[in-house]
From TrEMBL:
Transmembrane segments: none annotated. Belongs to the FPP/GGPP synthase family. This is Polyprenyl synthetase family protein. Keywords: Magnesium, Metal-binding, Transferase. Its cofactor is Mg(2+). Signal peptide: none annotated. It comes from Deinococcus rubellus. The keyword Membrane does not apply. PROSITE patterns: POLYPRENYL_SYNTHASE_1, POLYPRENYL_SYNTHASE_2. It holds the Pfam family polyprenyl_synt. Coiled coil: none annotated. Gene3D superfamilies: Farnesyl Diphosphate Synthase.
Length: 317
């Protein structure tokens, strides 16, 4: 299935570039890299579409700034995440900390968060609280991931908390923020929150599956990165439940999986039906996201939100 077409956001890129302007050249260059590299802009697109669903297809003047806020939170987390993961590239470009150093990269991420606060100051207070909670969840998810690996405390509950914080919290925020800004009824806010949360979980589960089972030429990086770092993603958790559990736990706890270890785990995932089981959970989460949208009035914009989740249900690369 092809990816959903890009959502028209005519003022978004220009506004994002304007908000990221700085008198400090290094901050300006990092901001320009993020704007120029683009990315899929899934999160601001969700915000834009959700707002139009609530507005009967009409955009609101504040939609652009709200979408920029979502992208700023996401981009700041990427700058920090690249440093944490010691990544060489992001969106096909050298990561900021490789190019400018750790301090510049971290402080540029913090600059984005400060610009986010400035934009939120002109919006309803409920949005400040929602962004704060989402940012807290991102931090907790990242730290919990390291804690789980340190203690060997591998469980489905911990995994779901990690990927909620790392990914789904911002998806949830992107979807429900327009409801908060418009003062929508609680049931509408809840429907959009569920959509974003379940879609975000499906999105991260699929990325984790690709990290282990994908093709290096397709995903653009060596497979098995999570395994080598001692991170137990969903297919690995399923393996830990079975007869190969002790073997797989030993690979995880070494936190230095060799290529042969990665191939062994890939073989086990294929042989034991774990790939299909993981895909079934991804599809289930995507369908929960779509079902939540059915509580909202039908519209072309709702259809486009559904298409994003439906694509996740069928994405295999």
């Amino acid at each position: 299935m092809t990816a959903p077409s890009a959502v028209p956001m005519p003022d978004f890129e220009a506004r994002l570039r304007e908000v990221l302007r700085s008198k400090v050249e290094f901050i300006e260059l990092i901001g320009e890299d993020l704007v120029a590299a683009g990315g899929k802009r899934v999160r601001p697109a969700i915000t834009s579409l959700a707002s139009k669903v609530l507005g009967g297809g009409e955009a609101h003047p504040a939609d652009t700034d709200l979408a920029v806020c979502v992208e700023l939170l996401h981009s700041a987390s990427l700058l920090h995440d690249d440093l944490i993961d010691d990544s060489d590239t992001r969106r096909g470009r050298e990561t900021a900390f490789r190019k400018f150093g750790n301090v510049v990269s971290v402080m540029s991420g913090d600059f984005m968060l400060s610009r986010l606060l400035v934009l939120l100051s002109d919006m309803p207070q409920s949005l400040t609280r929602a962004f704060g909670l989402a940012a807290s969840a991102v931090c907790e998810g990242e730290v919990l991931q390291f804690q789980v690996a340190a203690y060997g405390d591998y469980s489905l509950d911990n995994y779901l908390q990690v990927i909620y914080g790392k990914t789904a919290a911002v998806f949830e925020l992107a979807a429900c923020a327009p409801a908060l800004r418009r003062g929508a009824p609680p049931e509408t806010e809840a429907a959009l929150s569920t959509y974003g949360r379940e879609y975000g979980l499906a999105f991260q589960m699929q990325d984790d599956l690709l990290d282990l089972m994908g093709d290096e030429a397709t995903i653009g990086k060596p497979v098995g990165g999570d395994l080598r770092e001692g991170k137990a993603t969903l297919p690995v958790l399923y393996l830990l439940e079975g007869e190969s559990g002790d073997e797989v736990r030993g690979i995880l706890e070494r936190r230095a999986a060799e290529p042969g270890d990665v191939m062994r785990v890939r073989e086990l995932v294929s042989a034991q039906g774990i790939y299909e089981r993981t895909r079934a959970e991804i599809v289930r989460r995507a369908h929960l996201a779509i079902a939540a949208l059915h509580q909202l009035p039908p519209s072309p914009d709702r259809d486009r939100l559904e298409a994003y989740a439906a694509h996740e249900a069928q994405r295999v690369r």
